[in-house]
Amino acid sequence: MARAGLGPGWRCLFANDFDPAKARTYRANWGEDDLREGDVWRLASADLPGRADLAWASSPCQDFSLAGARAGLGGGRSSAFLGFWRLIEALDGEGRAPRAVVLENVGGLLSSNNGADFAAVCAHFAARGYRFGAVEVDAAALLPQSRPRVFIVATRGPVSPDLAGQPGVFHTTAVRQAQARLPAELKDRWLWWRLAAPPMRNTQLADLLEPDSAVTWRGEDQTRALLDQMNAIHRARLDAAMAGGERVVAAAYRRIRREDGVRVQRAELRLDGLAGCLRTPGGGSSRQFLLIAEKGRIRSRLLTAREGARLMGLPDHYRLPGSQSAGLKVVGDGVAVPVVRLLGEQLLEPLLTAGAAIAAAE
Questions:
Q1: Handedness of CA 21, 27, 32, 35 (dihedral sign)
Q2: Which of 303, 318, 347 is the last residue of a domain?
Q3: 326-345: b (≥16 Cβ within 10 Å) or e
Q4: If you placed Cys at 145, which of 67, 260, 275, 318 could pair as Cys (CB 3.0 to 4.6 Å)?
C-alpha cells in the first residue's frame, strides 16, 4: 500500500513481508519479481539489489499501540524495526545506504517507554549520519477513517530550506513533546518537515459503502443486542441523529470498559461521518460494525473487506484475499494510500530531487 501511494513515478527494487496472506496479496497486485516472503531477520544485504533512493519500513505496530502490550522496541513483533535497521547498517557499510528512510507506525511510538523508544530510533538514524523529523498525519484529513499515524522521515542529503523550517500543521502536541524529550545531540539533527494541509475532505463513510442489497445484514436479535451494549450517552446520540428523519450511518466497535470496577463490553458509536480506525484481531479489537438507521428502523452489519480497502484509499480493482477476515487483516495492517501520496508529493520527491540538484551544484 506504500507502493500504491508512492505511485508510478517510483520503481520498487525490493519488498518484504513475513505474513503469507499479505505476500499473496502483494503478488496478486504487483507480481513477485521484487518480493521476498519471510522474516526480515533472515535477510542479508546481499538479498537487496542496487542502491535505493528510499527505504520504507512499516513495522508491526502492536507493541507501540494502546491496544497492544506497549512493550516497545523490546517487543518481539516491533523488533522487526531492528531487523530492518540491521540491513540499513549493512548497506551503509557497502556504500549503498538509501538517501532517505521512512518509518511509519502508530502514535504510541512517540511515547512508548516514556519516549525512550522514540529516542532510540532517532539515535539509530543519527549514528548513520541521517537527519530526521517526524509528522503525525491522521488519514481523516484525506479519507473518512480516523487513522493517526507517525512518519519519521530521515535523510542524509542536503535539504532545501523550502522543505524544513518551523513546526507546522502535522507537528502535533505528541510530536513536539517527543522532540522536546530528545537529548541535545539528537535535537541537533532534528528537522521540522514542512507539509501543507490538504484541501478539505469531501467524502463521508456513507459514500464508500456497498449498496444495501449487496451486503449481508445481521438479524434483528443481533442488532438489538448491539444496541443494548451501548451506554446511555451513545444511545442518546443515536436517537438524536435519528430524530432528523434522514438516513443515519454510524460506525461501531465493541470495547471493554471498566465501570464501577467491573469490566463491561460496550458498543461505541461514531456519528461524525468517519469510520473508526481499521484494525485486526491481532491489534486487540474485533471487526467494525455499521449501524444504518432509516425510516425508524435500525439495521446492523459488519464492514466488508472491500469497504475497508476503500477506507484505505485503495481502488476497487485492487485484488483482496478471498475471505472477509483475511481481506480486513490485509487492509487493517496497511498504510493509507493518500497519506503516502501526500508525503511523496510534498516531501519525499522534492527532497530527493532538490537534494540531488544541491549536491550537484556543490
A1: negative
A2: 303
A3: bbbbbbbbbbbbbbbbbbbe
A4: 275
